[in-house]
């Protein structure tokens, strides 16, 4: 089929910046493609020009609505499909690790969570890739059972067209599954970010929840440049305060547990379940912690558990600093007893927590997880996430025999995800992993 549009300055540069812009004539589509720049660390550029027109002939301000959306009323299937195909051909040129590879990434936004799985066969025999699964529609819940048909200038029906054509021309099988999503804009954004992060891992030869490969060790392990750069920052956070309800000291050091976990954990909150939760989380995050609390447990567990979680979240946020140069996003699975939980985290400065943990509906009708009330476990998770200014999605994969098992599986997954989000990525050279360029506003 002959296209009515010409593409120029098409590039996908691995860990490099393209000197050319992204200008497809559909503003929201440009913004989504730009996620590859920020999250796949790929320098993407492409300019679309209608046949018979001169490139750049639209005139006016390059950021005006009319110029940016100059082709929003044209044949979007043609434009979006052509761009997907062109970028896929550029991605196919990348130096991927040998052998068949796959990678999976979930991207958490405050109103959406999309899972992307990429698979590259050892030998494609000239065959293109496939869009194996695509369950993003409906795009949000407004209107009910229908979602958005258009976001900005982009017709949402062509999001599938883009990924289908990109899969075919790149030789990579793509699966995109909406886990959650009430906001159409965020569903699409989560999909593009999840794809970008999964692609970065596929090129690197790494994968979430795969911590034993040689590629992972080289990229993130104790002898890696990331590990050394993370320690060089000497990041820590400390808070000490007293009220009529609690006296608290929380001190964390993101030090990779260089002294060994036993020498780096000093946790005594007066609630044994909280002590275990905080200690497990810190160990998996490879950070030293001192957490002491004298609270009014003679009243209830509410004030003590809440204040410890608030303080821990605040000192973590202080330790993260501006988050510039950090990996920022990761997803990790934790298992404890029969329980299995996945935590997907983004150090976003947009605090939000969403979960489906079996707390109010736990199988045994438990009121307590050890010596912590179940309602306060829920509140602890919320207080920790909100005060660390993170976006976190918790997905219960397997229900534990007890709520305590679920709590500890969550602590393990939370710590693992936190460690990877807080890791320095030297390739970012101190720049923020965001298309905005900052997380501070």
Explain what the structure shows:
The model has no long low-confidence stretch (mean pLDDT 94). The strands form six sheets. A four-stranded mixed sheet has the order 4-5-9-6. Strand 10 and strand 11 form a beta hairpin. The chain is elongated and about 80 Å long. The chain contains eleven helices and 19 strands. Helix 3 (76-92) runs parallel beside helix 4 (159-170). It has 441 residues and is α+β, with helices and mostly antiparallel strands. The longest helix is centred in the middle third of the chain and has 21 residues, at 184-204.
Brief description of this entry?
This protein is α+β, with helices and mostly antiparallel strands. Helix content is 34%, strand content 26%.
How helical, in percent, are the residues?
Answer: 25-40%
| Radius of gyration, whole Å | 23 Å
Total helices: the number is 11
List unreliable stretches of 5+ residues: none
What is the rounded distance between the termini?
45 Å
Structural class determined from secondary elements: alpha+beta
Percent of sequence in beta strands: 25-35%
**Major sheet:** 4 strands, mixed
β-strand number: 19
Write the H/E string, N to C. EEHEHHEEEEEHEHHHEEEHEHEEEEEHEH
Strand order of the largest sheet: 4-5-9-6
Q: On the 0-100 scale, what is the average pLDDT?
A: 94
Shape: elongated
Keywords for this structure?
441 residues, alpha+beta, four-stranded mixed β-sheet, 11 helices, 19 strands, 26% strand, elongated
């Amino acid at each position: 089929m002959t296209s009515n549009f010409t593409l120029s300055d098409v590039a996908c540069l691995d860990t490099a910046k393209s000197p050319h812009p992204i200008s497809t004539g559909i503003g929201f589509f440009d913004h989504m493609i730009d996620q590859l720049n920020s999250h796949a660390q790929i320098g993407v550029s492409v300019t679309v020009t209608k046949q018979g027109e001169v490139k750049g002939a639209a005139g006016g301000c390059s950021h005006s609505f009319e110029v940016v959306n100059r082709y929003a009323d044209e044949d979007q299937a043609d434009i979006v499909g052509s761009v997907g195909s062109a970028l896929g051909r550029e991605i196919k040129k990348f130096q991927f690790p040998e052998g068949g590879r796959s990678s999976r990434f979930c991207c958490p936004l405050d109103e959406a969570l999309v899972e992307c799985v990429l698979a590259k066969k050892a030998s494609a025999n000239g065959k293109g890739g496939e869009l194996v699964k695509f369950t993003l529609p409906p795009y949000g819940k407004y209107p009910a059972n229908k979602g958005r048909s258009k976001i900005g200038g982009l017709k949402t029906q062509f999001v599938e067209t883009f990924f289908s054509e990109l899969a075919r021309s790149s030789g990579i099988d793509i699966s995109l599954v909406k886990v959650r999503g009430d906001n159409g804009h965020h569903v699409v954004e989560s999909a593009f970010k999840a794809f970008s992060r999964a692609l970065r891992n596929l090129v690197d030869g790494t994968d979430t929840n795969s911590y034993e490969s040689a590629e992972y060790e080289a990229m993130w392990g104790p002898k890696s440049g990331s590990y050394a750069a993370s320690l060089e920052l000497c990041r820590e956070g400390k808070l000490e305060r007293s009220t009529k309800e609690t006296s608290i000291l929380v001190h964390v050091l993101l030090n990779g547990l260089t002294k060994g976990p036993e020498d780096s954990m000093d946790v005594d909150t007066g609630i044994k379940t909280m002590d275990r939760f905080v200690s497990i989380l810190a160990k998996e995050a490879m950070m030293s912690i001192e957490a002491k609390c004298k609270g009014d447990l003679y009243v209830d567990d509410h004030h003590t558990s809440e204040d410890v979680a608030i303080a821990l979240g605040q000192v973590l946020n202080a330790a993260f600093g501006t988050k510039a140069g950090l990996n920022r996003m990761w997803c990790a699975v934790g298992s404890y007893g029969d329980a299995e939980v996945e935590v997907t985290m983004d150090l976003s400065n947009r605090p939000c927590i969403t979960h489906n943990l079996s707390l109010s509906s736990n199988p045994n009708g438990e009121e307590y997880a050890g010596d912590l009330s179940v309602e306060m476990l829920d509140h602890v998770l919320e207080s920790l996430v909100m005060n660390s200014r993170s976006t976190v999605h918790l997905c219960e994969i397997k229900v534990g025999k007890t709520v305590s098992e679920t709590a500890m599986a969550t602590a393990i997954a939370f710590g693992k995800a936190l460690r990877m989000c807080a890791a320095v990525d030297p390739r970012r050279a101190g720049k923020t992993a965001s298309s905005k360029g900052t997380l501070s506003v």
